[in-house]
Amino acid sequence: MPRDQKKKPESCHFCVNNQNVIDYKDTPTLRRFVSSYAKIMPRRKSGICAWHQRKLATAIKRARVTGLMPFVVNQ
Q1: Rounded to an integer, what distance in angstroms lies between the CA atom of residue 38 and that of residue 21?
Q2: Rounded to the nearest 5°, which phi and psi values hold at 56?
Q3: pLDDT at position 75
Q4: Most CB atoms closer than 10 Å: which of 6, 38, 41, 52?
Q5: Which residue segment(s) compose the domain that 42 sits in?
Q6: 25 found inside a domain
Q7: Burial 49-74 (b: 16+ CB within 10 A, else e)
Q8: Is 73 contained in some domain?
Q9: Which pTM was predicted?
Q10: DSSP conformational letter for 9
Q11: 65, 32 in Cβ contact below 8 A?
């Protein structure tokens, strides 16, 4: 493994907690999977499985449209 790569977590956060539904109103959980520039983190960094990554992206996009999360960061 090259030095600049970080080891990803062993398993999906949502699978471990047995959470099948990702709620768009749960912004503290959603913010955990968003970068400092308000971009959705890729699977290789967040350690989420493909099924939950798709659900997570949809939930983040819904939270942005409803105004619960920002589209961009104010600088």
Answers
A1: 22
A2: -65, -45
A3: 73
A4: 52
A5: 13-66
A6: yes
A7: eeebbebbeebbebbbeeeebeeeee
A8: no
A9: 0.83
A10: P
A11: no
